[in-house]
Amino acid sequence: MRRTNVLLRLCVILVLCVAAVGCGCNKDPNEKYRAADKNTLFVAPDLTAVCTVIDSLDKEYYDAEELRAFIDSEIQKYNYSIPAEAVSLVDLSVDGTTAKVILKYMSAEHYTGFNQETLFVGTIKEAMEAGYDFATTFYKYENLSEAALADAVYNVANYVVIMEPTTDMAINVPGTIKFIGADVEEIDKATAQVKANCRSYIIYE
Prior knowledge:
The chain has 205 residues and is of the alpha+beta class. 32% of the residues lie in helices and 34% in strands. The strands form two sheets. It has a seven-stranded mixed beta sheet with strand order 3-4-2-1-9-12-11. Strands 5-8-13-10-6-7 form a six-stranded antiparallel beta sheet. A hairpin with a 5-residue loop joins strand 6 and strand 7 (146-147). The longest helix is centred in the first third of the chain and has 25 residues, at 2-26. It is globular and about 50 Å long. 25% of the residues are buried.
């Protein structure tokens, strides 16, 4: 009787494992990037980044294949100059006159190098050592009340995203946002909106 119970438990465990594997196989890890309905930068826990960019497309000049060929060429030139596989194309789709391009960057530095836009992702301590002065007004994210700079940067082990994009951009972080700088708008606990041509600060833990 005891042996039968052991075998039964093993069978149940095997069924659950197979079911879990099956569910995992059906999950698309890039679905959240494809689902973005606005320009969005996704920061991963390992500080790699994926950016979804949505833009109008002149169909007389580009079709999907021409656009893909152009992006592949730019990526190849950049990676060859490093040399490393620092930037990669995750997905590209065209719907009418709207193109959605998803690129992965192995670091914020490579995002900056490829796009010629300021992006820093790291700890507050690392940002200070890199020369960022945090010259902005900070707000507590939980209630959007103004916060002293000393309070915002007190925990130098917290992470900060510093970005100065050429277009409005949502930023999704792998944690909880604690403070934001001026010109940053609240979306949810892990996502905030930054404005084009403004240096924006998002501090998270």
